[in-house]
Structure formats: C-alpha cells, structure tokens
Amino acid sequence: AKKIAIMGAMVEEVDPFLGTNEHEPLLKYFKKHNDVTYGNNLYHEAKYKDLDIVLGYSKIGKVNSALTAATMIEHFGCDMVLFTGVAGAISPDLKIGDLIVATQLCQHDLDITAFGHPHGYVPEGKVYVEPSRNLIRIAKSVADEKGIDLKKGVIATGDQFIADSERKEWIAKTFDADALEMEGASVAVVCDALNVPFFVLRAISDAADTDATFDFDEFLKHSSQVSSSFIMAMLEKL
Ligand code: ADE
C-alpha cells in the first residue's frame, strides 16, 4: 500500500477543532490509530481506505519541519509527503480562507549574499524547490470538482512570523512570492533530497501586515480546517 505522510506545523493545523465538535478534525477520519512518539514528536499511524497514513505536527519552523519530514520518510517509510496549514498572504488576490498550492518554495531568510550569492541560495542547493506536478494536478482536479478557486504560486519560508508590510514587500519583490509561512521550503528541501514526491497546501490566515497576529489567532482554526479538508478530498484520488 502507499504510505502517505500528512503533516502540519501546529497541532491546530492537523487537528483544527481539537476538543470540540464544531467541525471535523483530521484525526476524526482516522479513528483507529496507533500513536508513536519519535524525536520529541507524536505521530499517528492509521489506515484510510487502502492507504497507510502517518499524521503529525512538527512544531513551528524550518528545523522542526525538516526533522518531521525526514522522520516520516526515513523512520516511518512514507513515500509521499502532504503538508497542510496556514500562510500569510502576499498577493492581494489571496484573501483570508483562500487556498494556495505551492508551485515553488524558497527560503527568504537564507542569506549568504555577503559572498555574492543570491538570496535564498547556498552552494549545491537551489533557490526554488518544486513540488510534485502530479500532486498539483490532482489538487487542481479536486478544486475543479468542488468549485474551489485554488490559487497556485510561490511560497516563501523563513523562521520569522511576518507582521510588517516592509518585510513582506521585500520578500514579495526578492522572490516573486505569493504567500509566506515558516515550514514549506524546509520540507521541500528534505523531500527533494530524498526523492519523495511532496505537496504544500496552505489556507490564508492573515496578510503578514500589522494586523497579522490578531488575524492569525482569529482565523488559524478555520483556515486550518479549509486546508485539511481539501487534503482529505485529495486522498480519494491517490
Ligand atoms: N503563517 C501564517 N501567517 C504567517 C505570517 N504572517 N508569517 C509567517 N508565517 C505565517
């Protein structure tokens, strides 16, 4: 059977309505699951239809998410990684609750420009890492069927919560980025290095501006739910 990693950064992203019956947490779909702790994270092994699933959240940031992606691949044997969560909008087309799938991911805070390299680049690496085209195509078909306006674009990742229009504009113009978050590109680097198809989906929680912390807290659960329910629909097509 295919073994699929589904990961987010925060517990709210993989289990948005934890402890409530308001909506449908991802874990609800995987009623019978086996909990495994590894490397200071909790993973849930489950079955869904004929798929083996490993579900978990990494904790915030590039290092934590790289560890979780690598663990899901190397320790649990996953052959595909699906990332679900929320992001700050850069593109004015993206409103709170809108879904964006990454076509390319980059690290906006990776900087050895002092040595003449471009932003986001280190030797033997690449500025942009690209997710599986096949998974993007599957996402598009799910969106078409459900009448969802799924946006595509560049997602910029860094170990910074951006709540400042100046920094946001810098990221926009330096990387031609449409949305920003704190885990996608690090998961991308790991999956690319290990030749495992991956996919990063984000629902907008804020616009990375002076209202960002307020909006993030307000919309985290709802936007997480938008993203995770889309991932559940994608599982039907894997
Ligand atoms: N994830 C969601 N909103 C974000 C923001 N403004 N900055 C970084 N990561 C985010």
UniProtKB/TrEMBL annotation:
Record-level GO cellular component terms: cytosol
Top enzyme class: hydrolase
Transmembrane stretches, start-end: none
Domain Nucleoside phosphorylase per the UniProt entry, residue ranges: 3-235
GO BP: L-methionine salvage from methylthioadenosine; L-methionine salvage from S-adenosylmethionine; nucleoside catabolic process
Gene3D superfamilies hit by this protein: Nucleoside phosphorylase domain
Biological pathway: Amino-acid biosynthesis; L-methionine biosynthesis via salvage pathway; S-methyl-5-thio-alpha-D-ribose 1-phosphate from S-methyl-5'-thioadenosine (hydrolase route): step 1/2
InterPro entries registered for this protein in UniProt: MTA_SAH_Nsdase (IPR010049), Nucleoside_phosphorylase_d (IPR000845), Nucleoside_phosphorylase_sf (IPR035994)
GO molecular function: adenosylhomocysteine nucleosidase activity; methylthioadenosine nucleosidase activity
Any single Pfam family the record assigns to this protein: PNP_UDP_1
E.C. number(s) listed in UniProt: 3.2.2.9
Top-rank lineage group of the source organism: Bacteria
UniProt keyword terms in alphabetical order: Amino-acid biosynthesis, Hydrolase, Methionine biosynthesis
PANTHER family: 5'-METHYLTHIOADENOSINE/S-ADENOSYLHOMOCYSTEINE NUCLEOSIDASE, 5'-METHYLTHIOADENOSINE_S-ADENOSYLHOMOCYSTEINE NUCLEOSIDASE
UniProt-recorded name of the protein: adenosylhomocysteine nucleosidase
Organism whose genome encodes this protein: Sulfurovum lithotrophicum
